Hints:
Elements: E1 3-8, E2 13-18, E3 22-27, H1 31-42, E4 48-50, E5 64-65, E6 75-76, H2 77-90, E7 94-96, E8 102-104, E9 113-117, E10 120-129, E11 133-135, E12 151-152, H3 155-158, E13 166-170, H4 174-183, E14 189-193, H5 203-211, E15 215-218, E16 221-228, E17 234-241, E18 247-251, E19 254-257, E20 261-263, E21 294-296, H6 308-328, H7 341-352
Parallel strand pairs: 3-4, 3-10, 4-7, 10-21, 12-19, 13-14, 13-19, 14-15
Antiparallel strand pairs: 1-2, 5-6, 8-9, 9-10, 11-20, 16-17, 17-18
Helix pairs in contact: 1-2, 1-6, 4-5
Flavin-adenine dinucleotide (FAD) binds at residues 27-33, 50, 52, 54-59, 61-62, 65, 67-68, 99-100, 130-132, 135, 152-154, 157, 264, 267, 298-300, 306-309, 311.
Amino acid sequence: MPALYTSESKVRVMTTEIKDIENVVIVGSGPAGYTAALYTSRADLDPLMIEGFAWGGLLQQTTDVENYPGYPDGVLGPEMMQDFRNQAERFGARFITDDATKLDLATEPGELHVVHVGDQEIRARAVILAMGAEPKKLGVPGEDELAARGVSYCATCDAAFFRGAKTIVVGGGDTAMEDATFLSKFAGKVTIVHRRDDFRASAIMLQRAIDADNIELLTPYVVDRFEPGENGSLSKAILRNVEDDSHRELPITGAFVAIGHRPNSQLVEDQVDVDPNGYVEVIGRSTKTKLPGVFAAGDLTDHIYRQAVTAAGTGCMAALDAEAYLRDTPVDAEAHWAAPPERIEAAAESAAS
Ligand SMILES: Cc1cc2nc3c(=O)[nH]c(=O)nc-3n(C[C@H](O)[C@H](O)[C@H](O)COP(=O)(O)OP(=O)(O)OC[C@H]3O[C@@H](n4cnc5c(N)ncnc54)[C@H](O)[C@@H]3O)c2cc1C
């Protein structure tokens, strides 16, 4: 008997049918996860998506998205993610709006993986990991309130909204330098705020920032708080000198926080290969992890591009990789010694269909 999973949240109440053995379970629901759901549903694999309690991914946190192809007038991030979801749903993708709490990933080809959502155990022949990566926050007053109203975590995405503006970039690594250099093409002034006098950034990236006419370095300062102006958007950053504790006020309308990302790989970091920063490693130009039938896509694997369109692109790749795996890998009945016979039968049927 298929299980029924009922998820109640403020967003929606839904009942999703869960099969004895799923072909493919997708964990995570940003552009990567929804694209994988779209492609696997159009390939008649009837995917089940564990989309997370905070469904829709990072773009739920932003307003205008102007660089996603196909939206000539731009689109609001949440609207775009609803479009992604609707498109996957149209072809039959099923959703559980809750977090996966544990993953037991199999190590042999054809063996079943088990995805846990609370007490519910979901068995799957293939799993696509698409849990994304969270930008690290400063954790200072005003940061959350002014997110998408001046405070940003993505210069590539938002720099063009700050033409002629006074801005800061917070951080001292390569990403901060790259963000500042990119932002300097649009902003009137960019101040790089860093807590130490020395920078972790490579010499060449630092020099590139120093060479720009409208970039200045300000150390050793941290952001103490952000404050809004009368229009409710960011109007100033209050900085604190970490050596003498003095304060300094910078009038700005844009602040880019560039202190790193934290990939959401905690559930799998002991099972698949991850790099020193926790990004899931894939084999070559594929989305295959070292485990058979386990694929990874989107920002969870990507510390370089981190864009919606690249995440969607690798979501498509993961779906195609999973489809090829399911086509070529018979279910290993012996590996399911613990499963009741009807479950093995169901797996064999699903492999044959
Ligand atoms: C403020 C901001 C603005 C941005 N603006 C743009 C822009 O304009 N253009 C652009 O191209 N890019 C933009 N980006 C970058 C873009 O959002 C990301 O590159 C993209 O969302 C990555 O997609 P993803 O599918 O890999 O992951 P995400 O979008 O991060 O989605 C991952 C999802 O997985 C879920 N998840 C995590 N763990 C679990 C679990 N255990 N179980 C179930 N679900 C789980 C999360 O809740 C999340 O919903 C922006 C980023 C930020 C932060």
